[in-house]
Amino acid sequence: MKIPVPGQPVRGSKTGQPIMALLDLLGRSWAMGIIWHLYSGPSTFRDLQDYCESISPNTLNTRLKELRECHLITRTMDGYSLTEQGVELFELLKPMGSWARHNWAKSFENDNQK
């Protein structure tokens, strides 16, 4: 699978609207989990593998390559870390995570109580 690039066809958009390219990237297995984990600081490949538990080394390598090529993470002396763009993206996603946990998920709890 090629790396989603704004302006080129991606899943859900023949024109490659930037938001659709981003959602294509973030929708790939473990992409958001890696970003989420790296927000707390740099991690080695091994640390990321432990965090992601069920991820294969090949998939982790692929995700890291994609996130690097999309300028969201970088390789440092301490392992992998978020770039400025990666931090900014996380800070946009964090409120969505809170909303999903506190609002959306609760709507399902209410369904289960009926």
From TrEMBL:
* Family matches, as InterPro entries: ArsR-like_HTH, HTH_HxlR, WH-like_DNA-bd_sf, WH_DNA-bd_sf
Query: Which GO terms fall under biological process for this protein?
Result: regulation of DNA-templated transcription
Q: Which UniProt keywords apply?
A: DNA-binding, Transcription, Transcription regulation
Q: Which GO terms describe its molecular function?
A: DNA binding
Task: Specify the domain of life of the species encoding this protein.
Answer: Bacteria
What are the HTH hxlR-type domain coordinates in residue numbering?
A: 17-108
Q: Which CDD domains match?
A: HTH_ARSR
Q: Extract the PANTHER family matched here.
A: HTH-TYPE TRANSCRIPTIONAL REGULATOR YODB, TRANSCRIPTIONAL REGULATOR, MARR FAMILY
| Protein name stated in the entry | Transcriptional regulator
Organism in which the protein naturally occurs? Flagellimonas alvinocaridis
